[in-house]
Amino acid sequence: MKGGSKEYWFVLTAESLSWYKDEEEKEKKYMLPLDNLKIRDVEKGFMSNKHVFAIFNTEQRNVYKDLRQIELACDSQEDVDSWKASFLRAGVYPEKDQAENEDGAQENTFSMDPQLERQVETIRNLVDSYVAIINKSIRDLMPKTIMHLMINNTKAFIHHELLAYLYSSADQSSLMEESADQAQRRDDMLRMYHALKEALNIIGDISTSTVSTPVPPPVDDTWLQNTSSHSPTPQRRPMSSVHPPGRPPAVRGPTPGPPLMPVPVGAAASFSAPPIPSRPGPQSMFANNDPFSAPPQIPSRPVRIPPGIPPGVPSRRPPAAPSRPTIIRPAEPSLLD
After folding, report:
1. Within-domain flag for 65
2. Are residues 37 and 56 in the same domain?
3. Per the database record, which ranges form the PH domain (predicted)?
4. Inter-residue contact 72 to 83 (CB < 8 Å)
5. Which of 4, 40, 161, 297 could form an SS bridge with 95, CB 3.0 to 4.6 Å?
6. Rounded distance, CA 117 to CA 115, Å?
């Protein structure tokens, strides 16, 4: 609808007519009380296709600001009729109907006070809301009530009539008979029990008859380490004199070797001079069974003595520096003595 030349959102209650800026109803423009208000029809304009009706005050007062009446426009005649019916329920009557009512006021014995009509409308709305609340409550409580009655009736039957009903049956012994499914299940459980018991007995026999041998202590190999520490080195070990069959031993003349170190008297036999190296022959798997024998070594090159300088040739070596006499001093006492 339109108020003036702008579009507004109108809300009609039993006491007032309010209009807002939009449908959200957040910004209220004005609230108009319905006291002494009436509605009248307004002719549609020449260039307008809106259906218009006006609201005015019967006491010739301004309705809104400096306006004696406000015109409201709708898009269709159905909307106008709907609003007129709403105003009629709120106590705002059309102008013509009011004149007719004044003419026939003597015939009507009941009061047509607008204030009373608004109060009646308010009471009717409250009653409708209350009836709706009662209806919803009954719908919510009905399933709970039915379940409560069923449980109470079942309890009463069990306490008072069930025993008599069981005794009145034809065959009481059949009530305690075991069903076929339960008998089959009981037999299966018994067979499983005996099978598990037999398996436990077998496992117990195996556990008691098994003899466990303790792990032997570790082998003492300290004597091997002692033997290897006292045995001569592989280079000083004498070579085996056994040669493989089919190949004569190699014969070589003596070769000059390095000068031998003097061996002190009483030294161990293991500190003897190394033998003259010779070309080793192919090793046989039966030649030497000593597990500590070393593999054959590459023979070392003999040390050659450089030829002497012939007499009469002067030496190119520089003369030796004179040596400083050695002074022997008495030993100083040590701090450890």
Report:
1. yes
2. yes
3. 1-92
4. yes
5. 40
6. 5
Q: Give how many domains the chain has, as a whole number.
A: 2
CA 293 vs. chain centroid, Å, equals: 67
Same domain, 22 and 49: yes
- For residue 239, is it within any domain? no
- DSSP state letters, 45-99: PSS---EEEEEEETTS--SBTTBSEEEEEESSHHHHHHHHHHHHHTT--BHHHHH
Q: Identify whether residues 92 and 23 lie together within a single domain.
A: yes
The answer to whether the beta carbons of residues 55 and 37 sit under 8 Å apart is yes
Distance CA 154, CA 200 (A): 50
Q: Does residue 17 sit in the same domain as residue 87?
A: yes
CB 95 within 8 A of CB 39: yes
**What's the CA gap between 39 and 71, in Å, rounded?**
10
Residue 39 to residue 70: CA distance in whole angstroms: 10
Q: In which domain, by residue range, is 39 found?
A: 2-108
Question: Is 231 a member of any domain?
Answer: no
Residues 61, 154, single domain; the answer is no
> Which two three-digit tokens encode residue 229?
């520490």
Upper half-sphere CA count for residue 31 (Cβ side, 13 Å): 7
Each residue's pLDDT expressed in tens, for the chain with a length of 337 residues: 444 567 778 888 877 888 787 777 778 777 777 777 887 777 776 666 777 778 887 777 777 777 777 777 777 788 788 888 888 887 777 876 554 555 554 445 455 677 788 888 889 999 999 999 999 999 999 999 999 999 999 999 999 998 888 888 767 777 778 888 999 999 999 999 999 999 999 998 887 776 777 888 888 888 887 776 655 555 555 454 444 454 554 545 555 555 555 544 444 444 455 666 555 555 544 445 555 555 566 666 665 655 555 556 555 666 666 666 666 665 555 555 5
Q: Within a domain: residue 320?
A: no
45, 100: one domain: yes
